[in-house]
Write a structure and sequence with these properties.
- One of its GO terms (biological process) is positive regulation of TORC1 signaling.
- This protein has 364 residues and is an alpha/beta fold.
- It has 2 domains: 192 residues, Rossmann fold (3-Layer(aba) Sandwich); 149 residues, Beta-Lactamase.
- It is 42% helix and 19% strand.
- It contains 10 helices and 11 strands.
- The strands form 2 sheets. A 6-stranded mixed β-sheet has the order 2-3-1-4-5-6, with helices on both faces. It has a 5-stranded antiparallel β-sheet with strand order 8-7-11-10-9, with helices on both faces.
- The longest helix is centred in the C-terminal third of the chain and has 25 residues.
- The N terminus and C terminus are likely disordered.
- Bound molecules: guanosine-5'-triphosphate.
- The site of guanosine-5'-triphosphate (GTP) has 22 residues, from helix 2.
Length: 364
Amino acid sequence: MEGHVSHIVNNVKTNALESDSKAMILLMGLRRGGKSSICKVVFHNMQPLDTLYLESTSNPTVEHYSTLIDLAVMELPGQLNYFEPSYDSEHLFKSVGALVYVIDAQDEYMSAIANLAVIMEYAYKVNPSINIEVLIHKVDGLSEEFKIDAQRDIMQRTGEELLELGMDGVQVSFYLTSIFDHSIYEAFSRIVQKLIPELSFLENMLDNLTEHSKIEKAFLFDINSKIYVSTDSNPVDIQTYELCAEFVDLTIDLYDLYKIPKNLNATSDMSITDSKLKEQRSAVESSELKNISQLENGVIIYFREMIRGLALVALIRSNGTDMESCITVADYNVDIYKQGLKEIWAKSKVPPIASHISVKQNIE
Ligand SMILES: Nc1nc2c(ncn2[C@@H]2O[C@H](COP(=O)(O)OP(=O)(O)OP(=O)(O)O)[C@@H](O)[C@H]2O)c(=O)[nH]1
C-alpha cells in the first residue's frame, strides 16, 4: 500500500513539473461527481451518454491540450487525501492557474462544500493568484426552480465557509453545468479565458472587427473542443453560442465528407492524373477552411479557420445590404484580424504548432 501511495505522489510531482510551462487546470471534487466525464466530453469529444460506463479514476491523470495557449488539465480522484504529508500538495497547488471544483447537484452536497472549503483554504494560502471555479454540475436532472435554489444555497454556504476561514474577500465563480448541453463548454470557455494573458487584446481586436463588418457577435473557437477562447464585448447568450458551436461541427463534418483521400493512389477516378491530384491537394492544403451560410432570418453565419486550430465564427446582419458585399467586407477585415492574431501569437514567444485543419472549402 505504501508503495502504491508513493507511486501516485511521484506521478503527481512529475506531472506537475512537466506542466510547469503550461496553464494548469486542476479538476477536483468528490467521487462520481463527473470530473472524468467532463474531461472526456470537452477534450475528447466523447458522447455524453458513453460516460455512463466510465470507471472510477484511482490515480491522478493529466491531459495536455493545445489551443491558443497550452493547457494541462489534471484530474485528482475524489477518494485520495491530498493533504497527507506524503503528497507534495504545495508544489502542485503553486503551479495551478485554476482550481475547478465539481459539485454533484443531484446528490447531497454538504460534504462537497466542506471538502471544497478545506481545499480552498489550502490552495489560496499557497497560491493567492489561483482562480477558484465551482461547477454546480449535473443540473440537467433538476427542475428550473430546484436548479436556482441549489445554486443559491451552494453559493450562500460557500460564502459562509469563506467567512469562517477569514477569506471573505476571495473571489469564487460559480457555473451551472451539464455534459448533456452546451453549459459545460460555456463554463470551460470562461475558465480557460481567464488563463490567457492576451485576453484583453483579443477582445479589443474582435470589438474592432465587429464594429467594421456588420457583425452582431463573433467567437474565436477552438475547433477541437468548441471552447471559445475569446469573444467581443457584447454579452454572450447561450443560444447564439450553441448556434455557432453547431456550425463548427457542421463545417468539420462536411470537411471530413468532402476532403481529398489521404492515399493518392486509392482514387478510382481515372480521369484525374496523379500529378493533377497532387497539385490540387497542395493548393487545398495551403489554404484555410471556410464556410458561409445564410440562416432563415437572413443572418449570415461565417466560419473561417485562423491559427493554432482556432476558427472565427461570426453572425453578420446584412440590414438590407446584399450578401456578397457583406462577405467581401468581412473577408477583408477578417484577413486583418488574422494577421493581428499571428502577430500577438508571435509575440507570446511560444513556438506555434501545426494546425490540425488546413483545407479550404466553401460550402454555401
Ligand atoms: N445526469 C448527469 N450525469 C453526469 C453528468 N456528468 C457526469 N455524469 C455521470 O456521473 C457519473 C460519474 O461520472 P465520472 O466522470 O466517472 O465521475 P468522477 O468525478 O470522475 O468520479 P471518480 O473517478 O470516482 O472520482 C457517470 O455515470 C456519468 O455519466 C451530467 O452532467 N449529468
